[in-house]
Amino acid sequence: MIRSLYTASSGILTGQRQVDNVAHNIANINTMGFKASRLNFKDLFYANLQQRKNLDLENRLSNPGIQIGQGVMPSSITKKFTQGPIITTSNPFDLAIEGQGFFGIERDGELLLTRHGNFHLDESGLLVNGDGYPVVGQFNGSLLNYREINIDMDGVVTGINGQGEREELGVIFLFNVPNPHGLAAIGDNLFSVTENSGEPNPIQSPIRQGALEGSNVDLGEQIAFLMMSQRALEASAKLVQTTDEMMAQANNLRR
Question: What count of Cα atoms within 13 Å lies in the side-chain half-sphere of residue 110?
């Protein structure tokens, strides 16, 4: 009976991990550019309590014997990179990607990726993210010397100079990786490249100026996950209680 205690405890611990993941998703439902994560499970090794004889006989179709499962464990957490809603803003430096791809952010010489396009100009006229790290692109000097900055769907930046002429000022680069699910989330809506994700490559995707991509968290889906996790936790806890009562009865048989 002790095996059922370990099995039930694995269900409790795994259910708690699911609740933790759902809580993280719901907490970020209003975070621009946030991508929901999903917890994946796998069953543990099976104990072979009784082996069938003559398994090597030709054309034998019987089952392999008596196998008892030993519970469950989390196997991985993956990000869902589906498109979030496009929310229009009044900020000309708010940018949203329609389709695949990421903005590049340079931090301490490292290329990081993000879907959060809430950018602004720093004191030197450089386009940066909320933490002050520059957006990867090719720019011709400071953007502070120009007015009516426009960023088209290809990421080309233009502005009106002192002579009243519209001038091309640079271009914003977009990147993608062969396996986005292999990216490592490091907080602040940033992802770092890993060996599993593959190296980033420049791509072309439409960019919408004056808009941000909202979170792709589906509240109804998360509430459903939360309810299933709660029921699983309750069932596993009940199994622990039942096993404890059965063991108590077994111990009392000697009296």
Answer: 10
- What is the residue type of 22? V
Are the CB atoms for 33 and 114 separated by under 8 Å? Answer: yes
pLDDT of residue 69: 78
Give backbone dihedrals phi and psi of 40, rounded to 5 degrees, phi first.
Answer: -105, 145
What are residue 130's phi and psi, to 5 degrees? -65, -25
pLDDT more than 90, % of the chain: 62
Pair 73, 10: CB distance under 8 Å: yes
Res 2 pLDDT > 80: no
Looking at residue 243, what is its pLDDT? Answer: 81
What is the residue-averaged pLDDT of the chain? 89
Distance, in Å, from the CA atom of 210 to the CA atom of 207, rounded to the nearest integer, reads: 10
Residue 165 phi/psi, 5-degree rounding, is: -105, 140
Contact (CB, 8 A) for 6 and 44: no
Angle value at C-alpha 170, between 124 and 186, nearest 5 degrees: 70
22: its two tokens: 């759902």
Q: Spell out where the chain has E strands.
A: 37-43, 46-51, 65-69, 72-79, 86-88, 95-97, 102-107, 110-114, 120-121, 127-128, 137-139, 147-151, 156-160, 166-172, 174-176, 184-187, 190-192, 201-203, 207-209, 211-213
Query: Over the stretch 114-166, which tens digit does the pLDDT of each residue have?
Result: 999 999 999 999 999 999 999 999 998 899 989 999 999 999 999 999 888 99
